[in-house]
Automatic annotation (TrEMBL), chains A, B:
It holds the Pfam family NAPRTase_N. One of its GO terms (molecular function) is nicotinate phosphoribosyltransferase activity. PANTHER family: NICOTINATE PHOSPHORIBOSYLTRANSFERASE, NICOTINATE PHOSPHORIBOSYLTRANSFERASE PNCB1. Belongs to the NAPRTase family. This is Nicotinate phosphoribosyltransferase. Residues 17-141 form the Nicotinate phosphoribosyltransferase N-terminal domain.
Length: 447, 447
């Protein structure tokens, strides 16, 4: 499944510039003030889910690990920072030596999350941790938004396969990450060759309307496609008249025709008509694939229709109305001094205008009720209550700068399916509602 | 301005895999059927603007030109296609030699567009043109969505500077393209260092709440920042109590303090209070920058507030409610045979389910009324009416495979500002409405 060994063509030499300028100016000011080496704890969390959503899906963790490993300041990057006078020579020397040597813990990829869940915790010196803020948030905010939409769509699709085909609707590299996140959220395959190349996701695709229009007659196009791809191919039947196209398709390919694709019109109605026609023509094994502007609601509305697979584009790669998450990366604790034994002090923004958060280094656990069903997301500081020790959610991802938790993409996908299944049943209702688990805080007063 | 010579670290070795698999399977079937070399015309257009929007903004053209130049199938890519059995050896040999050798015309970057505007036209053999569909749409759909949002925001901001700071809210490379599109749409600078590096966009940034929280007292953080960055820096004043912070900021930096930033709360109210306090403290030249969840409506609502600059993140990089455009890439004409002199035949999907389009190779012009004010977007096939010949919108971008229209980013930015200014005044109303220019079609019956 994992073909990453083939090469990393969609990666970039360094991730260090996927960074807001203020991370570097803060670094410089802290270096000069002697505070840069204070041990610090940053946490990634979101204050809320998108309106009406029942759960979030963490995706992008594997990409964060790659980004942290590749976060280094090469000579051309240092030259740029120097030419622009963004930081001074002392800071440039520090950056030239930069490697993250701290620790990262987090929810494993594919896990569900709720408001306040500390989905990632980055610990080290202030200097080494603050630099990672922008790229970590870029990855988690994007990928988790796509995975959440994908998860809702895969619930709605039941066991039917879902094809990701949104590359043309989003940035060409965001598309590759979107395919990856969609796969974690339960999609089956992608149209995007770069996603197949980079992440080993199964790729699919046969033809577009242009192929039919290129030929003098629809039948000529069908014949050309079947000769090239075999009778098991999928023929697109809505360029002209659907009924005529289905008849021509079965004539050309025979009843062994793999599938027909419908990309426009009233899919519910057309799918029923096409199924009946295919059956009458003896093509009882020919599948029907639908692909027109689907979202989770449209997928659900086709549950009783004779549809065998869904292709989803725009609504998937734009997060079905919520193209980003609102994850933030906040300093929650830092040492009183640069003395390695100095105790950590919990810190938090406290102004009156909202955006406050809870200070202190957090643990998280998912608590079951007496019947064993999950009933709450518990987030706390200080000691973990005995009953929750074995139910903690954060795992070690990076230890002293070394990635310790790489895994194949299928592991994240399997984890997501299991995590979603362990939620209360109302999690997969598509209607708007509150988060399916309440978040409870257990704050240690000494912290 | 243009520092592209510094290197291309956010580019990728080849763009050929930013492609839906069906482009390759269509290619193979057409090669075998002998139709692949039919001369073909594909056009990029959108059937509608996002609901309520008055105009679209074309962005990404420059990135498309890069992508077309770098669209080639390297050995590792060919190996991948072979291993996955996506196409056969004959097609792989064809792909190994692939270079686009056709012609591309289009609206110049930064130009406005309307439903039906043929914003890009790709002409050559079916084979060489069909392969470019996915990557061209990825770029134009993403970048134009961001530019449209940026343009509305820059209208709303009047002459006040706009800082793009959305990197953390979108995919890390989409963020770089978003900075570029925002700059075209009228933004002034970006927080994203990669956008500065790759496209020469001015970068800015000073500090976050974490920097204040790192220090024992807010005043210590301010002092550290001023010592590092000088009195002209921007101090963030809403970590604890805003009024206390403003007092401390002016005490530490003196009345020469460059700016204060407010990132939460009721910005209208807080900006007025902070302005009054700064003036009373003698810091009459200290500017106020606001940065909290702004969109074009929030920016407009602050028009009368003493605000000197806006920083915009989430709503910019997500297209302010419309994170993608609905541009499509359609075969509109193709030759009757592979004979180079064979005439072009207009083609179009004609099924009843919607998504129909107008066949034929198009021209476009923007028609003024008798007072010289722009009154319609005219799109046609066949001969261009004499009065519109000098008002045509498409320009040559690629000729026989060679890019002929590279330009600095500022040219696109200046063009956008001029194009928007030439529209009827209602173009810049933020309220929902119809496209500010109607699209009129002049279809040649012989075509």
């Amino acid at each position: 499944m994992n073909t990453a060994d083939l090469g990393l063509p969609v990666d970039v030499p360094s991730t260090a510039l996927f960074t807001d300028q203020y991370e570097l100016t803060m670094l410089q000011a802290a270096l000069r003030a002697g505070t840069a080496e204070r041990r610090s704890v940053f946490e990634v969390f979101t204050r809320r889910l998108p309106e009406g959503r029942r759960y979030g899906v963490l995706a992008g963790t594997g990409r964060v690990l790659d980004a942290v490993e590749n976060f280094r300041f090469d000579p051309d990057v240092l030259d740029f920072l120097r030419e622009r006078d963004i930081v001074g020579e002392e800071t440039l020397r520090w950056l030239a030596e930069y490697r993250f040597r701290g620790d990262i813990w987090g929810y494993p990829e594919g896990e569900v999350y709720f408001p306040g869940s500390p989905v990632m915790r980055v610990e080290g010196s202030f200097a080494e941790c603050v630099l990672l803020e922008t790229v970590i948030l870029s990855i988690l905010n994007h990928d988790s938004a796509i995975a959440a939409a994908a998860s809702r769509m895969s619930s709605a699709a039941g066991g039917r396969p879902l094809i990701e085909m949104g590359a043309r609707r989003t940035h060409e590299l965001a598309a590759v990450a979107a395919s990856r996140a969609a796969y974690i959220g339960g999609f089956t395959s992608t149209s995007d060759l770069a996603a197949g190349f980079r992440y080993g996701i199964p790729t699919v695709g046969t033809s577009a309307h242009a192929f039919t229009l290129l030929h003098d007659r629809e039948r000529d196009a069908f014949r050309a496609q079947v000769e090239s791809m075999g009778r098991g191919t999928t023929l697109l039947v809505d360029t002209y008249d659907v009924a005529e196209a289905v008849r021509a398709a079965v004539e050309v390919a025979g009843p062994e025709l793999g599938a027909v694709r419908i990309d426009s019109g009233d899919l519910l109605l057309v799918a029923h008509r096409v199924r009946q026609q295919l059956d009458e023509l003896g093509a009882t094994g020919t599948r029907i694939i639908v692909t027109s502007d689907l979202d989770e609601y449209a997928i659900a509305s086709l549950a009783a229709a004779p549809v065998d697979a869904y292709g989803v584009g725009t609504q998937l790669v734009t997060g079905s109305g919520h193209p980003t998450c609102s994850m933030v990366y906040k300093l929650v604790a830092r040492a009183e001094s640069t003395d390695p034994s100095a105790p950590l002090v919990a810190v938090a923004k406290r102004s009156t205008g909202g955006k406050t958060s809870i200070g202190g280094r957090k643990w998280a656990a998912r608590r079951p009720d007496e019947r064993g069903e999950t009933e709450a997301e518990v987030v706390g500081t200080g000691p973990v209550p005995a009953g929750l020790v074995d139910r903690q959610l954060l795992v070690e991802l990076v230890k002293g700068g070394e990635v310790v938790a790489r895994e194949p993409l299928d592991a994240a996908r399997d984890r997501h399916i299991a995590a979603r299944a362990a939620l209360p049943l109302s999690a997969t209702q598509l209607s708007r509602g509150e988060p399916v688990l309440p978040t409870e805080y257990v704050i240690d007063e000494d912290d």
